[in-house]
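Chains adopt folds. We examine one example:
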Amino acid sequence: MAESSPEYCPASTSTSGGESSPESSESHRKIENCQVCGQKAHGLHFGAITCRACAAFFRRVAAGANFVIKCRKGGGKCEIVSNGRSCCKKCRLKKCKEMGMNIENFQYDRDPLSTSKQITPSMAMYLGRPEFIILCDPETARNSITTKIDLTGIIDKATKILMSDIKIPRSSGQNRLRKLSTASNIERFSVSADDDFHEVTAIGLKETMSFWEHDILTVAKWLTHFDEFQDLKPDLKLTFLKTIWSVWNRLEKLGRTTMFLKSKTAPSWDETPIFQANDVRINLKDLKLDIEWLSNYSVEQIAYYIEGVGDWSSFHSIQPMLELDPTEVEINYMLAQISFSFATRELQGELSEIAEKFLQLIADDLHNYYTRELSVSRYSDRVLKMMKINNLVMKNMFERKEKLAIARTFDIFHVEFSDSEMFKDMF
């Protein structure tokens, strides 16, 4: 056992931690039956002559019970018989104490294996720095120049999209999910060829900013296809966008990749392609990163914090999504569900209530999609699989938050955004 546990005392053990007198030992030998249950005694345990069963019971229950033990019959006078089996625990424990059994006689640290609680110190613990940057000069991070990124231009473009008063009409019989599908047009990736995409092999600040702009504006356009969202006040629209854009794009990139791969002969993700934008594909294994704008450490030193380099957890959802083989409507339901669920957690008051309402609306539309368009009455299995994928994406996001907390503690990143809330889950 790795932890210490109280052991019952052998027959020669004293009742109070000291040595037994010859007279008391002689008197104990005359008692042949357990003083608790009346069965054949084994020896002196915790201050009374008992059998092994009663000794084990007292050791287990007397010191560690954090629950209320109730008498079976309610009178507190149950008979302790049958070697302690099927008897009242409350009355049995009471009898043990009446016979002189005491938890002060428990003996700890008698395990044959070492139970030392001292943790062997490591260099990382001694220096208070993670192992992957342990050989780096702390001044490297401390004296770094902060990169300040102004998001004003991107936010202005997104605001212009959100504030458009033009409502996109639904076609006949089109529900919300169908309308959102026309905005994302994710189905096109299932009929695309390899040469339809431009492969990016190097990414620096310029390319990163371009991807962020594409991602934020894509979510803004997608939201405008949701009728009830268009009815919100301008400030509420922008708050929703700033809250959900990151999680929406995280799932949408996985959906793009899934749509592209599922048209192949043997669809499976070989840890290579991720589709970043409409016509951009990234080969993660051959990608070169320029992170001078982000950190003074090298890519190798902080790979643990970079998705697609040392952190691959975000892409674990691709294979289960391939196995699900979702339709375009199902992917848009997943996008809406994960976005509005995330909003209910991050936002408060009126905004949280609005997000809850949106979740109910898309759930109703998904039901109508299955029952009316596909004529499927039993679809709970597919919904369950979709929720498992969404939950996995959310789990990866929360795990990444923990990593980022460590990164901030050790000043690994030196970037500052004009709207820090939008990137709190990234840097």
Notes: The CA atoms of residues 148 and 181 lie 36 Å apart. Confidence is low (pLDDT under 50) at residues 1-28.
